[in-house]
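Pilot study result, target chain (300 residues):
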Amino acid sequence: MSKLETIKRYHLIINKLRVSKQATFSEICDYLHRKSEIDGLNYQISIRTFQRDVSEIGSIYGIYIKYDFSGKFYFIEEDFEPEINDRILETFDLYHALKIQEDLSPHIYLEKRRPQGTEHFYGLLHAIKNCRQITFNYQKYYKDCPENRTVSPLALKEFKNRWYLFAKAAYDGQIKCYALDRLSELEILKTSFTVDEYFDVNKHLKYCFGIITPNAEKTDEVILSFDPFQGKYIKSLPLHETQEIIRDTEDELRIRLYLYLTHDFLMELLSYGNTVKVIKPKQLITELKRIYTEALKQYT
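Predicted structure:
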């Protein structure tokens, strides 16, 4: 059996269980038999080969297939939060698509990006799990030289293809955010720390767009009007978890959000150009007018 057939068989087994949620060995074999006829390849396997496949899928992709002895069926174990499990499966889909191609260059083009600091992931996760303080050098964009920081790491969060560390700073006890791509010389210290209460980054950022937490005491009600075409994208991928549709017609999509008016949110609105109109609040309208006026001056 070729390597291509083996990799495609892994993919088929996973997809079968993703769609069906559960399946007996007989049902999986029937599915592989049908796919063999369609693709002109041999995906058929014995129970022994299937058990080896299950082990390999867990080892290579981190997707674990378990057997329910009472129901006599197989299923994908979801030990993680739904968002994490979905990302694991998305990563598998991409890996599979790249792996089975013999010549990628004419067909697949990946974005050219700087390293995102993910080489620190395992060290940071170890420190978070074991409540160990860390020290590192951190380069701020508006400073010439990096500064050393000692912190108690609490959580990691992704935003716009970048990863951030939330940690309690040793020098003032405040929770701060650090971009992993600007972090270097990471060292895990022997000093341990205690967490007074469980830090939930989603709760911490519940009314924020992005990773900036403002000093504002209350959130703002934001009402936005999108043109119908852009509105389709906003419905399929909401701007924020508080998003509520208040009007959906042939002329516009109008939504309501409750969040803090942060720089990240302002930059997001600007990226939509003339496809969005702010209905409220007034201070957001004023700030956008100012930015657009200043931008126009550069072309006069």
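One observation from the pilot: The longest strand covers residues 147-159. A full batch analysis is planned for the follow-on phase.
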